[in-house]
Amino acid sequence: MIKKNKTLTFYKYILTLILFLNVVEAAEPKENESLILPMPNGLSMEFMPVCVNTDSGLFDWKKIKLGDPSGGFKEYPTTMALGGSFPIEKDGQKQWCYYMGKYELSRKQYASLMTLKKPLVQSEKVYPETDVSWFDALEFANKYNQWLFAHAKDKLPKFDTSYGFVRLPTEAEWEFAARGGSAVTADVFDQKTPYDSSEIQKYEWFGGATSSHYKLQPVGVLKPNPLGLHDMLGNADEMTMSLFSVEYYQGRTGGFVIKGNNYMTAKNKLRSSFRTEQPFYRSDKNGIFKPHTKKTLGFRLVISALVFPSRKIQKEMSDEWEGYRSKLGANMPAALSTSATSVQVTAGSEDAFSYLDRLKNRLKQRGIDDNEIENSLGHLDSAIRDIATIRLKAEEDSAYLWIKVADEQALFIRRETKKLPLLVSLIEMQKRVKNMEKLAKYQARKQEHMTSIKNALSSYSDSIRQINTLSSESVKKAFPKYLNFLLQHNNAEQVQLLNRIRKHFDEYQKNKRVNLKKWEKDLLFR
Question: In three state form, how does the secondary structure of 182-228 look?
């Protein structure tokens, strides 16, 4: 009985903590966060810091998910690890960051270092440079680096002894920044764009009379994304340094990856995950192969640094390696990147059993017959199997807890939402009688309820994500176990909610993306 009471108390503590945890909204980017580097002819290029993670060591990185189910098999959600190049002070703490161009590279900037095919048309408006090849972009980056090293080396950010250098972004760097990076919540990061679909015309140029009119537009006219970056998902397509593979980082490679969309793209097609393969060369009408260019294709640059700038850093990374491999970097090969924790542990156990078998065979081959060694290996074999069994039991308990947490969160969302119509009626009544004191009171209460619902929805989505980290077997056992608990307590409302939680979990397991608006609607059944 005492144990049961302790368990219930623990559940209540977890539920209270998660239900009422405040969600920090992304702040508007501050202008003083930018890094401005000079260019020839009195021009400059502005960069924004894209911070990946707080500084917890030289192997610090962040797991991110690229892709979106709407993009088909070429954009299947895939987990990757991303790190920054420079440890910088931001928001009062040290973070690993890289820098990304605030705007698409402009025609004037390109002309300051490169020979143009056509004379530059003088204009007050600043248009992005397009119709250049991937090789042109690399050549521009090289020339700009040479110019910076000669004229403005001290203005470049540094990591240890390595001065920063400009280059094309990798696909992961580009998509992380396009989604809003660490400046947005996990729910916003999961969406197709980091803005509400009804306001996307305020942020991105797309095809049609309500936006670009199917013409290239000047840079920086519309609002920036949460990281302060302009025109990430529209206006001009953007080149990356990455080679195209169907599964991002595995399989055969082909041309280079372009990201973003352009001024010809339909509004409903805009998404951060968009990716397509572009050839390095195309043949002209005479069959002569030349570097591929495209009127909609431009680029922006990032600033990064060397990973091993000095022997000192290499020594420090060597010292941190074992700790990294045993914790943060454990069991994270590409094949296991989106698997449940238990699957990763099982794979690691299978490797261990394989190593033990090899060791036993080597001992036999060398004629070593030692009972003590043989017994020790047997105990080690049993210990590994015991760990796997204990882990599975722990996962079953965790699955039950997280399903219970999600059900309580869903109930909270449902009941709080039901209170809103009454508050709306009271607000309208006070407007009619012009009782400003009560009007302000009810409006404040309504805002409190809406904030609580929003925070609970965010926590609910976190619970669904957490359930997804557990093995399918443990989740499969936990749902009917919790259903029996609800039936024993005659809780019909939460039984109905549990059915929707299972539906949302199945959707997330398939798509690896949350859909908060749809999920909220599902929870408000009559």
Answer: HHCCHHHHHCCCCCCHHHHHHCCCCCCCCCCCCCCCCCCCCCCCCCC
Strands 275-278 and 86-90: unpaired
Say how many CA atoms lie within 13 Å of 513 toward its Cβ: 21
Residue 7 has pLDDT above 60, yes or no: no
Cα–Cα distance, 224 to 496 (Å, whole number): 42
What does the alpha-carbon distance between residue 114 and residue 298 come to, in Å, rounded to a whole number? 15
- The model's pLDDT over 480-499, given as tens digits with 9 standing for 90+, comes to 999 999 999 999 999 999 99
Give kind and range of the element (H or E) at residue 243: strand 237-243
Q: Do residues 109 and 312 make contact, with C-beta atoms less than 8 angstroms apart?
A: no
CB 87 within 8 A of CB 48: no
| CA atoms of 297 and 290, how far apart (whole Å) | 16
Tell me the C-alpha distance between 56 and 46, whole Å: 28
Tokens 């001992």 found at: 363
Picking from 160, 330, 297, the residue whose alpha carbon sits closest to that of residue 216 is: 297
Using a cut of 0.90, tell me whether the model's pTM lies above it.
no
Q: List CB contacts of 483: < 8 A, sequence separation 6 or more.
A: 495, 498
C-beta atoms surrounding 106 within 10 Å:
21
Chain centre to alpha carbon of residue 428: 42
What's the rounded Cα separation, in Å, for the pair 154 and 157? Answer: 8
Kindly calculate the radius of gyration of the chain based on its CA atoms and give it in whole angstroms.
28
223-276 pLDDT tens trace: 999 999 999 999 999 999 999 999 898 889 999 999 999 999 999 999 999 999
The three-state (H, E, C) secondary structure of 69-99, written as one string:
HHHHHHHCCEEEEECCCEEEEECCEEEEEEE
End-to-end CA distance of the chain: 37
* C-beta of residue 309 within 8 angstroms of C-beta of residue 161: yes
For 295, other C-beta atoms within 10 Å of its C-beta total: 13
Instruction: Compute the distance between CA of residue 414 and CA of residue 456 in angstroms, rounded to an integer.
Output: 10
pLDDT by residue (tens digit) across 400-409? Answer: 999 999 999 9
CA–CA separation, 508 and 112 (whole Å): 48
